[in-house]
Amino acid sequence: MLELKHAMRPELRADERARQNFVAGLRAFVLNDLADDMRVAYESRIRPQLERRLGRPPASGPEVHRAMRADPMFQLYSALRVNAQRMVWDSVVPVVEREKARLSRVAGAVRTNGSLDLDPSFEVPRNVTAIDVHLMPGSYARQEGPDDLGAGAIYDQGLAVFSFGLMGENLDDIGRSMAHYIRRRYPEFRPRAILDIGCTIGHNTVPWAKAYPEADTHAVDAAAPGLRYGHARAALQGASIHFHQMNAERLAFPNGSFDLVFSSMFLHELSVKTIGGVFREARRVLKPGGLMLHMELPPNGQMSAYDSFYLDWDCYYNQEPFYKAYRDQDPKALCVAAGFDADKYIQFVVPSLGFHGEAAVDAAIDADAGEVDSDKTGRLADGVQWFGFGAWT
Amino acid sequence: MPADEEIAVPDQAPPGIYDETGRPRFFADAGLDRLVSVVLQLTSEVWVLAERLDNLEQLASRGGFVTYEQIKSYAPDAEETARRDAERDRFVQSVLGPLREVRRAEK
Fold first, then answer.
1. Model ipTM value
2. Which domains occur in chain A, in start order?
3. What is the pLDDT of residues A53-87, one digit of tens each?
4. Do A26 and B92 make contact, defined as CB atoms within 8 angstroms?
5. Which of A34, A287, A380, B84 could form a disulfide with A77 if both were Cys (CB 3.0 to 4.6 A apart)?
6. Cβ contacts of A33 on chain B, cutoff 8 Å
């Protein structure tokens, strides 16, 4: 099992480790083995039937989804995956309950050149509070006192079990892969001020701060517990990051403050309308020659009907209400609608640095590959690759 | 701020995919959905016991007294973790393997 390496991690008792170890193994079994089997079932059984009925190949994820519902392989995969997701949190919440007071003390004693700027009057948006996103109990914003960082610790430990090693030692593989790509691909780009929007616990902010140590790095999120936790977590990894409780649609930064505004797995938590607001705000705070960059799930328009169905599963069964509507958008059109120049749009696919190694990432940069590998991109399984897009100002 | 109706059932959801409590359901017989939870909980409990026994064997094989605190806080080193991860994967495959499509087809 992946055990976090940073000093803010909760200490595990032997039985807690065993429970998490099992859930991580179960997740790997479902997302590698059963997922492969479900594709076999689709190709051998479901697709031929569906094509006969439609008189053409399936055109969309929802068409595949409806056909899959009746198949035992889909039912088993899905039932196991929903249960595994609940078991992730069940294996984590008691650990954090036991460790929370100690973690708050550790956080309180942290010394850093970074900062933590919380806003007690901040109104947390309903997409964060209304449901248990990712089935995480109590959601990301729940806090029981002014020092409560529990939701941040639950998310960190939960993601470690959830990702069964595929998101890196400190869950920073997305940030490490993306930052490595940008540094290598655009060596002349030397950002002096960086902003991460929707940072949760800053797990993907840290690698950017380390990739560009001369830059001032800021990170914003709506949920205070994650910011408290992330501030200490980053400091204990030697990264000086300024964390702020802010809404990404209404940033309290002057126009032209940043060279780079980025997010990691953030946009699919937002309605399409909110994404428009976030992109316009990103453009406002960017300097000329700056870059807006998002690591996200790949768009449905660039994938097969089956792979669309496969990724959109989370929307229906993992409390991700905006996931599919986001993936139905054309990322370039989103950038253009927010005022970015179509000619300055970029998109690329980075092999996961942790899974494939630096040579594979460098090869992808040299090949200048922007094409989505329908089967591997954005899919948490062996061979994972990350999708990135954005635009220069 | 999104309106409430934006956080309801996602669009293009096939009918009947949630039960009356809002939980996803997958099988024609709702009892099967519940049984999957039972099987997985039970499998998890068996694995926790297996690790606990493994820990005790590791500690006992060192000789001398073993304290309660040593048992509860036992943490395997890197080598042992790798061995245990491989054992866990074998365990998962052996208990849940019959669910697999490919293995069934090969038989």
1. 0.91
2. 169-392 (3.40.50.150)
3. 999 999 999 999 999 999 999 999 999 999 999 99
4. yes
5. A34
6. 93, 100
